[in-house]
From TrEMBL:
Keywords: Acyltransferase, Amino-acid biosynthesis, Cytoplasm, Transferase. Its main location: cytoplasm. This is Probable acyltransferase. Transmembrane segments: none annotated.
Amino acid sequence: MLVVKKRFAVQQFRFETGVTLPVEIGYETYGTLNEDRSNAILICHYFSGTSHSGGSGYLEDPDERTAATLRPGWWESLIGPGKAFDTDRFFLISSDVICNLHPRNPYVVTTGPATIDPQTGEPYGMSFPQVTIRDFVQIQRQLLDFLGVETLYCAAGPSMGGMQALQWAVEYPERVRKVIAVITTGQTSAYTSVMPLQIGIDAIAQSPQSGLLLASKALTIQSDNKLADTVWRENASTSMPYQTAIEEAIRKNIVDADPLHWLYLARACQTFSLQQGFDSLQEALSRIQADVLLIPCDTDRLFPPEESRCLLEQLRKAGKNAEYYEFSSQRGHYAGVLEGEKIAEPIREYLLRS
């Protein structure tokens, strides 16, 4: 399944801080929107992800149908014909967030600190307004309006993507029927806010480029249990120190990343709470009309299963239809992205249920 990257621009996007700026994001679609526009699913990406959640590669020229590059989407195991997110049945929309981590990736369209400020001719840098998960949802809502999608059949995503999916249910309760929130939380804990997010923020503030490596290393070690353990075992008895080996593995994933974009995303995740803008979490949850499926991983250290269980209890206390499916993996947090096959069946069954 080859896809085309598209652009969506808002000339005066109003951030939650009150600042207005021109903003552009990229998006991809998979499948076909049905006649009554009732089969749309929004896929929200994780911290270091992009809008390329499905498909096997990009079309250089849609008319000629030639592939520019073969690059599988990060949830390709779940997205496609006959898969959990069945593109023969559903119309999927997947967009880049504002401040996407990879502004130098030619297949990412985003606006953030690395973007040139038209007023100065220089990158925005730290003058760019702080972003929130609610900002991500706001521009997604405008994208859906542009596409003519009034109601989502489902909003789904892992980690930071799950935050967005849950925020959709609170922010626009009448516009989403189902939510699938994978390896995520309803409010970022103090532990995750500090380790690894604040560690990364402090490192980047001191030295952007070397700080980006340290920040990414801290996040990866906390997120991918198997990678950290494997690199340790493979290098414990060799001349290559563990730190050097893990850094080599991480450098490959940040070649097109920007330090300030990492910092801005980290702050957005740090400040995330469904309660924001309401007097209590229960007031926020009371707005939800969607059915909710929570899918944690048993070895997740960033958002442990007990956070999903706590949210499940609070949703049910608020009288909401909420379900829970916990899966096992050695990979920890990243399992929700890297091992989609383990959660394919509960997602498929949940989506097919009326």
